[in-house]
Amino acid sequence: MVGRINNQISEYLQTRIEANDFPSASYLVAEKGEIVLQDAIGLAVVEPELIEAKIDTIYDLASMTKVLVTGLLCARLLENGVMNLSDKVAKYFVEFNSDEKCDITIQNLLTHTSGLRAWKPLYLAYNLWSGVFDENLDYPINSKVVYSDLNFILLGFIIEEIYQDNLDNIAAKVIFETLNLQNTFYNPPKELQKRIAASENGNEFEKKTCIEQGYEIRNPQSQFRNRIIWGEVHDGNCYFMNGVSGHAGLFSTAEETFKIARQFLPNQTTLLKPETCELFQTNFTPNLNEVRSIAFQLAETKDSSAGSALSKNSFGHLGFTGTSLWIEPETERIFILLTNRTHEHELPFVILNSVRRKFHELACSELRIYA
Asked: 324 by DSSP, 3-state: which?
């Protein structure tokens, strides 16, 4: 399945490459299970050598891991009755059986309403377990949405506890092998490095964030990589977790990302029951500051990167490295834009939400022409 190139989209993304938003982009637009538009532009690697992006270039999907692996696995457990949204985290880990945290549920983790802080450099704690489980709450449970990596790190641990296996093995057996994915994995094989889009030189963003938030950095040479991050996960916590976590670590191409994304649509899924897909379209955070379904953000959220071209019940997710996925359920359209904005770029990295909105606008315009 190969889609046609859309000159307007490709030319627009080329202008953003020339504006130094990112060195490369790979996009895919599908409708009712068929790839319609597809192309790759720019350089997947600038340093240490020049490598052009292709439609089968592999990208570090970063936080898209939260939906493509963790959210999908949780949905399977929910529909099988092994897990319930009302389950307390303390059911799985006694460390959460405290006055402050005993009421945190699976739903809280999946909708980012747990009270846990947005981010914490676990690699500075030297102890992953205590770094997560000793964490105090930043705000009352269910009082607001605070997007947090810690929520999905915990969900990854819970999935491992249920399956009694490592998350990468579970994902491979349940998702990647079942869907016959050849270019989707945690910790990609080293021989594929030249097919992978490169990322940041070192961990300057996280180092700067740690300094700004007052964390003590005892050994920057060992705690922050001082090299081009290429073929290994960009996220520092996931790297500290040997490249496997519930919040980051997944690598894939645009086409194989599309194959997983189809699992969230009732008429296309093969891994879930059709009715389970309602979880991804349902607003579980009414009257809060952000509209969240299970694992996803809904386009109804103010200033969502979906933009006005997509319906309000569309659902999507972003990745820090410059990746995005949005799904419009009523039209069964899937929009994937993968970039490596952290590569060959000094801080600050460019916020790409306006680029994503324009991409959706151009794609929808093209789909209307060929409808």
From this structure: strand
